[in-house]
Amino acid sequence: MTALLDDALAEARRKYRNWGRWGPDDVLGTLNFIDEGKRAQAAGLARHGRAFSLAMEFNRDGPRSDARGRGNPIHTMLDSGSDGTPQGFGDAESVVFMPLRASTHWDGLGHIFDHGIGWNGRPREMVITGAGDEVTGVERQAAAFVSRGVLLDLGRVLGQGELDDGFTITEEHLRTTIHTQDVTVGRGDIVLIRTGQLTRCRRLGSWAGYSHGPAPGLSFGTLGWLHGSEIAAIASDTCALEVRPYEFGEPCFAPLHQIAIPNMGLAIGEMFDLDALAAECAARRVYEFLLVAAGLPITGGVGAPVNPVAIM
Asked: For an engineered disulfide with 244, which of 6, 185, 215, 254 has Cβ 3.0 to 4.6 Å away?
C-alpha cells in the first residue's frame, strides 16, 4: 500500500502542482481565481437579504480534542463589570484561548507541507519560525474570501440527508449533485460540501469520532476536478474534508491535503455549519449566494477562525 500511495502522490504532484502560476512571491494560491469582476457578480446574488452564519460556536463543548493539544476554545471572564464608576458605568471583559483550527476555520497555506516543502516550493524553514508563518500567514488572505458561494448538498442528493461515515465522494458524485441541483461550478467559486455528518452528530448528541474517526469526504481522486474547475476554495461540514479512513490504508495521513494545500495552493475550510443554509437552498431551489468568509487576520497564523456568512 505504501508504494501505491507514493505513486499516487507523485502523479498528483506532476498533474496538479500550481507552483509559479501566480509568480514566485505568491501568498494567495487558488484565491487568485477571485477577481473584482467575480466579487461584483457575487454581490448580485444577495437578492433577498437572507443571511446565514456558517460557523459552529467557539466554546469548550465543541468537537476538538486530541493528543496534539488542538482542544476546544476556553473562554473565561477577566472582569464581571460589577465594579462600576460612581456614574454607574460597568466594564465586563473576557479572554479566550484556543488553537486557530478549534472550530470553523480555513487552513492556512502554511498548515501542510509535502516532504518539507510548502506552497509555491518554499522550504518549511523559510516559512515557519517561532513567530509563525512569516510568508503565507493567514493575515495575507484576510480580504480574499469573498466570492460566489455554491452549496453542493451531497447529503440530500445521495442519501437521506446524511452520508454514512466512510462514504467516499467521487468526481461522479460531485457532477451528479451539480446536475441534480441545476447549478454551475467554475472559476473563482467557493464550494461548500454538505455531507450531513455534523447533522448526525447533533442528532445523536455526541461528537464521538467527529475529529478523528471515520467520516464521509472527498476521494483523493477528486483532485483532478478540484484543479480543473479552478475553484478558489472548498469547505465542508466535516473535520477534515477528505474521506476517513483514508483510501490508501496504513501508514497514511491526509493525502488529499498533502497535494491540495502545498502543491495546488487550494484553500480548505473545515467544520462549516451548513444545515440552515441547506434548508433555505432546498426550499428556494437556489444553490448560489454571496459568501463573505474572511478569517481573522492573525499575524503568522497557519489557520484562521472564521464566521462565514452566506447572503441570498
From this structure: 215
